[in-house]
Amino acid sequence: MMRTKIITLDEVDSTNRYLHDYHEAPDEDMVVVTARHQTAGRGQGGNRWHDRAGDSLLFSLLIRPMTVSVASQYVLSMAEALAVKEALDGYADGFALKWPNDVYWHDCKISGTLIETAVGREGLRRMIFGTGININQHSFAIDAPNPVSLYQILGHEVPVEEVLRRILTAFGHYYEVVLSGDYERVSRLYHAALYRREGYHAYRDGEGCFEACLDHVEPDGRLVLRDRHGRVRTYGFKEVAYII
Fold first, then answer.
1. Of 36, 30, 43, whose CA–CA distance to 12 is shortest?
2. Comparing C-alpha atoms, which of 187, 186, 177 is closest to residue 218?
3. Strands, E, within the chain: which ranges?
4. Out of 84, 111, 123, 230, which could bridge 133 as a Cys pair, Cβ 3.0 to 4.6 Å?
5. 132-175 pLDDT per residue, tens
């Protein structure tokens, strides 16, 4: 059973930043910070996470996965993404994991995660997952291309705390699977849940636009696509864009 400490804040600049300064106790397997509002929430690549106080689920989760090698750390990203999707699956169908760290409902984004890792000479020391999920927004005023909320999907509001509880239960399970060494099980479930996992779809990289099918995601997190000419294309974060 994972020993989890939950810290609830009304407002903070960033839950990830809060955990950077947090000194966890030896008996805390996971530390979770949640806030009704973030004044400086961030996403991958410096993107901002926008929210109206109380509508989003905003939380960061700290773990110390020192038995997981640096080369295999992406399996933990897979585990966290699966936990978010599993929680949302309890409300509706149609959710998928968009590489590297987003959750989509059909072609609309409902969740994003920023992952920050601290590495020491002995390997992984800490990982912080900063996740934002659109829960009770009735509409979006920001100039985002494709947001969606759970409210818009269901037609009614959902308690934010309930979604968090479901995520933490699911993550605790997947984290234990990772710590047991069964990376293959987590990877298999992750690949089965991927957005655009079947067929050819449009992408754009530094060379231009092309169509490709999703081949797999490498253990180090790189995305492998195969285009219509049979060419294998491998990408790190931010090296390829989905055309939606």
1. 36
2. 187
3. 4-12, 30-38, 56-63, 95-98, 102-105, 108-120, 123-134, 200-205, 208-217, 223-227, 232-235, 241-242
4. 111
5. 999 999 998 766 679 999 999 999 999 999 999 999 999 999 99
